[in-house]
Amino acid sequence: MSHLTVFEHDELPAEQFEDVEQQRETSSLGMWMFLSTEVLFFGVLFTSFFVYRTRWPEAFAQGAKELKWWLGATNTAVLLGSSFCMAMAVHAASEADDRTIVRWLWFTVVLGTLFLLIKGTEYAIEWHEHLVPHFRWSPVAPGAGEPRDPQLPLFMTFYFVMTMFHALHMVIGLGVLLVVIVLARRRHFTREYHHPVEVVGLYWHFVDTVWVFLFPVLYLLRH
Amino acid sequence: MSHPTPRIYRNVFAALMGLLVLTVAAAFLPFDRVLPTPHAAVWARRITISIALTIAVVKGLLILLYFMHVRYAPRATWAVAGAGFLWLAIMLALTLADYLTRNHPGIPNNRGEPRYLLR
Amino acid sequence: MTTVPYNPDYGRPARPTYLSIAYRVSSWLLTRDHKRIAILYMIAITLFFTVGGVAATIMRLSLMTPDGRLTLPETYNRLFTIHGVIMVWFFLIPSIPAVLGNFLVPLMIGARDMAFPRLNLASWYLFVFGGCFTISALVLGGVDTGWTFYTPFSSSFSNTHVVLTVAGIFIAGFSSILTGLNIIITVNKLRAPGMTWGRLPLFIWSNYATAVILVLATPVLAMTLALLCIDRVFHVGIFDPAKGGDPLLFQHLFWFYSHPAVYIMILPAMGVVSELIPCFSRHRVFGYYFVAGSSIAIAIVGFLVWGHHMFVAGMSVYGGMVFSFLSFLVAVPSAIKVFNWTATLYRGSISLKTPMLYALGFIGLFVMGGVTGLFLAAIAVDVHVTDTYFVVAHFHYIMVGGSVMAYLGGIHFWWPKITGKLYPEWAGRIAAGIIFLGFNLTFFPQYVLGYLGMPRRYHAYPEEFHFLNVLSTAGASILAVGYVLPLFYLLWSLRYGPDAGPNPWKAMGLEWTTSSPPPPQNFERTPIIREEAYAYDRMTPQGSDNTPIIPLPAAAGGARESGRPGSRPESSEWSDQ
Amino acid sequence: MAGSANPFRLLPDSASGIAPRVDALTGFLLLATGLVTLIVLVLIVTFVLKYRRRSEDEVPPATVSRVSLEIAWSAIPLGIFMLMFYWGAALYVDLRRPARGAMEINVTAKQWMWKLQHPGGQREINELHVPVGRPVKLVMISQDVIHSFFVPAFRIKQDVLPGSYTMQWFTATRAGEYHLFCAEYCGTMHSRMIGRVVAMEPAAYQAWLAGVTPDEPPAVSGARLFASLGCAQCHGQNGPTLAGVYGSTVALSDGSSVLADENYVRESIVNAPAKIVAGFPPVMPSYRGQLTDEQVEQLVAYVKSLGAAASPSATRPSPDAAVPVTRPVGAQPPDHRPDFPPARNATDYDRPAGSQPHP
Fold first, then answer.
1. Mean pLDDT over each residue of chain A, to the nearest integer
2. Residue D144: left (phi > 0), alpha (psi -120 to 50), or beta?
3. Which residues 211-270 on chain C approach chain B with CB closer than 8 angstroms?
């Protein structure tokens, strides 16, 4: 089927589907399959984290104390908020109410960017405290603090690898959200045909779920 | 109903915020000073990790079921969502099966002597 | 008076097939037709197979002499590494799912195309893009860590192009995920009406199981290789014991992907054989549900057994026992499949055409490869034979004897459907015989070498292993000839081969009800399926003039009853694409 | 290599206690699987010949799928597999449990050579002389990548990890010269990292031992290091006493109990905060980076020589964590276990000599 323009809205589903309903189910199932791969993609990091936590419990406990739990908590709240806004946007899409879709999507994008900003400040604080393994690390806390556990760099490595992969997924999510905002502003969605918003919603909620697990595992296991 | 209403979204969001406060509070409970057993540090570590993970699982489920409409989705979506987490559980379980039984003194034989297997 | 059989195409202009619809290069490089993407994959993996094969030939020639005079140790190490990497990730894993799977899954379930055609093309581009990385690493000086990239050698001690090769595999991994995702969603969502799960051909069942593994295992490889690159570039000690890391963790995570990966390689081969045996013995498969169920069982239990690669690597004794027990469980479904194939042959009418020769060769070699897996699962024997040529022989029997033989059998069986031409039968049989003979002569001596204790990846070996290695090299040269023959006569058949009708083998299956090569949208009308998968027992004797021996499913005439609102109106004319 | 010159042999020499038992299991596996393979091949050939296609239009009778047959040929193989699993696992436990009083040899693997040291201090490169009939325990560590100590004639193989000790043991039963290979790929000269294991009669072994000018035994240099590093200050009085700790089960501060083998001693020296004995403050500094592997090996040898428990299983598991368990061998067991006979000497708990499973 030769689509004239990429976003030309047409009643007919893509040529290999029987009807629009089947296309909607297929795209959400496809996204769910992709999210399963993401679960295992982050799963490797969680498995390695727990394996090393069983080997060096003191180092990982001290690492959790080094991190700023209150920054992590606000970030979790921000991300849960953006997830809520995304859910409201999807609901608005199912009512084909273009103005509210754009409003809720903007809230989601703003909260998402706020999350990245808070994360950025957190990285800056850790850079300042010489907590970045390989790049800027000191075995003793700066300002004549007490000596750090020799295995603390391992914990900080996992902290940076896990949060940076998560931030990467956030950035991708924000990009796709901006595309959907453009679509919504051009009144592209109808009551039947709004599954791009749903699919992006699935992805955004998943990225939020990953952070829901990341926050306690990294910040709250302080014993 | 095939789709959750905004009211449900608001309730779920409130629940998530409540659980966030709960999990942060639970992390600061002084288990290592309170527990009676001599190995307080170890039990404190185990209790905090189990509390933190259960609350995280509950929050994750809330997001999955309501925000991602899994509760109203066909069975295939349940299977796909479940498969991802089940395989993660397989990887965790069998990898830790190896790590937690290393240097284990070994199951004692019939006379109560540990078998002392090499690694 | 001679009766003229009814020919639905009489009087109409010849319908364009997916090959004759467009000839511009852009129609191939920007195609969204699953059949053309399958052919693109076939060309790509044939090139990669040649690279891997050349590396294998040089290795075998170097092993002819005990001190390996032909190659330096560095060169030999780079050769077996690139042989492993190319053959595993750039030939075996995509070979059947991406070539035969892409071509046949929509055809066999009555769909017009894959669920996500654009992702399907993206999968091919990712595959080729990843291949460029790995080939550039090979050209720039190769990598000498072995295809398993064990740390800390790969992360701290090897000074070869590890990160470049690993980046290539990382990208090719996403190509596998997209192929798997496409197959699962297509089989779930796009089956023709009447095609219930119980009527799916077994090729679809095994590709479905393979797709499940592809989707659930490959991300673990992607992240493990990412951690390896982070540790290699930044030396943060994730796998470096001096800094608190544990090299065994890399092995756990690597084999969590790589053992299911060997099932990705063998399951589609079993699917091809489950199609060939019924066709050439004109028998319904013995125990259809058990063969289908065993594919799914292999896919699931395959994820629990990776520890048997690490019995001597320093794993705990109890961990080893758990994995040994589970490894014996995973052997049961394979045994069920072999017994069911043998039972299908009982009281059938067996014709030994080339695809059947490959299928029977597959069963023989797969059984010998599979049973030696039991030796490796019993820990006490594994302690002696792991990391020796016994393991090399075991996995080559399964991968080369099994997967490559079935791939060639599948290519020969569906060649008329893919190209519309018949290949010369006599040439096919000779090539199959040479491959079978060369294969056994190459790899059977390696079982004995392995039990004698010759370690694998040895560039030079003690004098007493000399005779068996020369035997193996002789076999390898025969095998090389055997692999080159099909290339010639298949390409020859493209030009000079006789035209094949829609069903040259008189086989059952939806793909044989459409013309060969099939039209761009696969079926004139979406077929409706009314009987079981392999209804060979309801075949009617047919005239000798090559008219289809089976009653065409009612689809040829029947209109669609269950048109859901907003569904595509029945387009009688095909659309240009 | 005795008897290895003829190229047509199918079995390597069988020169260790475990070798015949592994060969027996391999024989059983070969028999069982060979039988099944033969049956399948014969069936296929007969079917292909008997039921070959007579004419193009032949339609054979339909197959009848019988579930009972399916159940049979999945349950029977499962039963045979479980037997194979049990036999393999039982043999593996014997492979991983050293016999009493094994002679301990320190093996250090370096990129592309083996360095071995006998308890008496004799050092060897790429060669290992062992007496026939005496159990030998190899305590192995690598200085760079993963290697693997593989002696085909003894049917033993164990990877040598860079971070911690891995151990294996054998008892040579036939005198002779056997191959030693590195079985885990370790770099360019992986195929040159080979050597030979010479099993000699005890008399010949003693003669060879005398002929070699011994280096300083590791235990002695370990004692010197122990004093120079000032370990005695803590481990003399208030710290955990080290007499008889090797081989006993130590209760740690986190409630778990660990066998005090070489890995535990090494872990306590190199990563001190890892495993602290119950009832003691975690004040031991970590010596990582300050000691070479050689020195750690000497300290471990010294700790072993401090009245090591006669055999790893000599002292019973610590009944109660509160009481520090590191007591000399043979000391009176805590009285609240009256049912357990007090051990007067180390060998009380050994199995009667007759039932010794001669590996």
1. 87
2. alpha
3. 212, 216, 220, 248-249, 252-253, 256
Amino acid at position C307, single letter: G
B13 touches chain A (CB under 8 A): yes
Which B residues in the span 90-119 are in contact with A, Cβ-Cβ below 8 Å?
A: 91-92, 95-96, 99-100
So where are chain B's domains?
1-73, 74-119
Residue A119 CA: distances (Å) to CA of A76, A202, B60, D32? 11, 23, 21, 62
Over residues D184-209, the pLDDT tens digits come to: 999 999 999 999 999 999 999 999 98
Q: Is B11 on the interface with A (CB under 8 A)?
A: no
CB contact under 8 A, A56 and D274: yes
Chain B: touching chains (3 or more CB pairs < 8 Å): A, C, D
A126 and A119 in contact (C-beta within 8 Å)?
A: no
- Which residues in D lie closer than 8 A to residue C340 (C-beta atoms)? 70
Tell me the per-residue pLDDT of D134-158, one tens digit each, with 9 for 90 and over: 999 999 999 999 999 999 999 999 9
| Cβ within 8 Å, pair B112-D340 | yes
Contact between A69 and B27 using a beta-carbon 8 Å cutoff: yes
Which of C284-293, D27-36, D38-47, D57-66 is least confident? D57-66
Minimum distance, in Å, between the CA of residue B11 and any CA atom of chain D: 42
* Contact between chains at D98 and B118 (C-beta distance less than 8 A): yes
Q: How far is it, in rounded angstroms, from Cα C215 to Cα C205?
A: 15
| Gap between the Cα atoms of C538 and C531, Å rounded | 10
Nearest chain A residue to B23, by CA: A216
- Domains of chain A in start order, with CATH, are 20-220 (1.20.120.80)
How confident is the model at residue D255, as a pLDDT?
A: 67
* Cα distances (angstroms) measured from residue D244 to each of C362, D308, D345: 61, 5, 13
DSSP chain A: ---SSTT---SSPPTT-SSHHHHHHHHHHHHHHHHHHHHHHHHHHHHHHHHHHHH-HHHHHHHHHHS-HHHHHHHHHHHHHHHHHHHHHHHHHHTT-HHHHHHHHHHHHHHHHHHHHHHHHHHHHHHHTTEETTTEE-SB-TTT-PBPPTTHHHHHHHHHHHHHHHHHHHHHHHHHHHHHHHHHHTT---SS--HHHHHHHHHHHHHHHHHHHHHIIIII---
Contact list, D281 vs chain A (CB under 8 Å): none
Partner-chain contact D286 A150, CB within 8 Å:
yes
Options 2.60.120.260, 1.10.357.20, 1.25.40.10, 1.20.210.10; CATH for C37-532 is 1.20.210.10
C123: which 2 tokens? 């999968």
Contacts of B31 in chain A (CB under 8 A): 223
Burial of residue D35 (number of CB atoms within 10 Å: 0-12, 13-18, 19+): exposed
Higher pLDDT: D357 or C409? It is: C409
- pLDDT of C4 reads 65
For residue D37, CA distances in Å to C278, C291, C335, C367 come to 21, 19, 11, 6
Q: How does DSSP assign B79-98, residue by residue?
A: HHHHHHHHHHHHHHHHHHHH
Contact B92 A50 (CB under 8 A): yes
| Interchain CB contact of A149 with C (< 8 Å) | no
Q: Which of A49-53, C462-466, C563-567, D189-193 has the lowest mean pLDDT?
A: C563-567
Encode chain B (119 residues) as per-residue pLDDT tens digits.
577 888 999 999 999 999 999 999 999 988 878 888 777 778 888 899 999 999 999 999 999 999 988 888 888 889 999 999 999 999 999 998 888 888 766 666 676 666 667 76
Q: What is the pLDDT of residues D278-317, one digit of tens each?
A: 777 767 777 777 788 888 888 888 887 876 544 443 333 3
